[in-house]
Amino acid sequence: MFSHSSPEMNQDSKASAIGSFLNIRISNPMDWRPIDRFILLACLVILAPLSFGSTMWIANTQVPEWLNQPLVSFLTVLYIGHIAVMVGFILAALKLRRYTDDWPLFENVIIASFLIVVLTTGYLTGTYLSEALLIIFLGVIITCTLADVNKIQFCFWIVVPLLGGMSALDLMQILPHAMLLEKSPVADNGRPFDGWMAIRMTVAFILAPLIYLCILAMKRWAERENLYLEMSTIDGLTRLSNRNSLITRGQEEIRRARAADSTTLPPLACIMIDLDHFKQINDTWGHHAGDEVLVAASKVMMENARPNDEVGRYGGEEFAVLLPGTTLVQAKLIAERLRKRISHMAVEVDGQKIEVTASLGVACYPSPGVEAMSDLLKTADKALYEAKETGRNKVVSA
Q1: 310 noted as active-site residue
Q2: Please, what is the Cα angle at 43 between 41 and 45, to 5 degrees?
Q3: What is the span of the domain harbouring residue 382?
Q4: Which run of H or of E encompasses 274?
Q5: Domain boundary among 182, 198, 233
Q6: Region 47-65 average pLDDT
Q7: Same-domain check for residues 226 and 248
Q8: Domain for residue 238, yes or no?
Q9: Mean pLDDT to the nearest integer, 111-126
Q10: pLDDT digits (tens, 9 = 90+) for 242-292
Q11: Phi/psi at 347 (5° precision)
């Protein structure tokens, strides 16, 4: 038996595809697949010929004697052709997105057609160094978030010489300035005519939403930059510094200590902390309980840290605290206070109280055998290992 689909089913399938695209794609466009970003970009690009064309057609119906009619026809064909090409690619992309995530040809056509329309319109109206340049600038900002930045950079090096060439043609008077206009839009007293002012104001209102989109794009860039910075320095669970950030801070402190102009180097102490029997907590209460314990212990460490201290998650259930300007004796007292606070903290999970203790190892730079950050961590870790081997829930200094 052969099956066939009716026209109604095809229409429902197309509507479903468009509906799924609209419903799923409510998230931030920078998180979309490339082909979905291109569909959005093409929809935005259509605004250019629509706004230019509608403004030109309104002016042509009101004051046709002010416009060069052959160029009106030329631009009409250009705008309609541009819109038709974009709509065709959008419809094709809505089908292809089910099978592929990318379509470089679509991206290239969007970028190239946008530049052709804007530069042509800007040159023929004499606004290529004002409105056209601003629209291109705004388009670059929006496109950089949705397309390949390298392609935008390549187009930039094409646009700049083209603008220079347009300016040269105007200066040398080889071609008429603002060829679309049969009459100057500026009166003898230097004031633009009301119609020309209305057109410029219309363009300004059209640019307003584009500027807002640029603000949203730049805001998203800033948010992502902050997020990536946080992800590279902060542990996601405990919100403490991660291992790399901790080591980097320690290296900076040691370099600062070595560069200090004094006979005695400012000390840098390190406390390594390991939660006792943590695997048993996970096995008995579950990993969610283990996470609660890690978060609670991290909170205790942060509450007892000084502003200049660096508290980090070294790995698993192991933590480290860097204490700039702290001697070994002072660090041991701080470690003992941390040990007591951890042993007294209340961790309640699923209605059950979990008791937690910690073993701590303390080391200090400078000291014999400790000349770098790796030496400091290794020495503190040896002291921690001794604390665990000799009974746990105690502090041992190197």
Answers
A1: no
A2: 70
A3: 243-397
A4: strand 268-275
A5: 233
A6: 88
A7: no
A8: no
A9: 92
A10: 999 999 999 999 888 888 755 566 789 999 999 999 999 998 889 999 999
A11: -120, 110
